[in-house]
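Checklist before submission:
- one chain only
- standard amino acids only
- sequence pasted in full

Submission:
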Amino acid sequence: MSPVEEPDKTLLLWMEREELLFKTLEKFLVAEKLKEGFGKDGINVDDFVYFSLSVHNRRKSRAGYAFENHLSVIFDSNKISYSWGKATELNKKPDFVFPGIEQYHSKSFETSLLTMLGVKTSAKDRWRQVLSEAAKIKQKHLITLNPQSAKIKQMK
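Returned file contents:
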């Protein structure tokens, strides 16, 4: 696969591979903790719930960062100029600003030439936060791995 000739297929392949590698490592790490038990007696429910939530949150966080990272490699491979996670107004941080944050903050740069991209692994409800990022850019763009038709209708 090539991030230049087939960026969509490449992105999906990278996400699948990264997920496989992560889950392989996670299986080993979680199995060790399960053998160890939770709390002094090994069966503390609160400690188990805390651990379970941390595993769940790590999965979501890792997927989002991986998605952004893979996109940045595709942009770099295609020689696309961008800024990643840089602050706009009120310290808002859109995932990607094109051609870059310097142009975004420049008073002389034509606003209509700016683009922003929000990156969400799933549409769910977090897509709304994209609307408040990069106030100078009227039309927002969102990329997701898991489109949900009902959510997409809400976005229009």
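Reviewer check: The mean pLDDT is 91.
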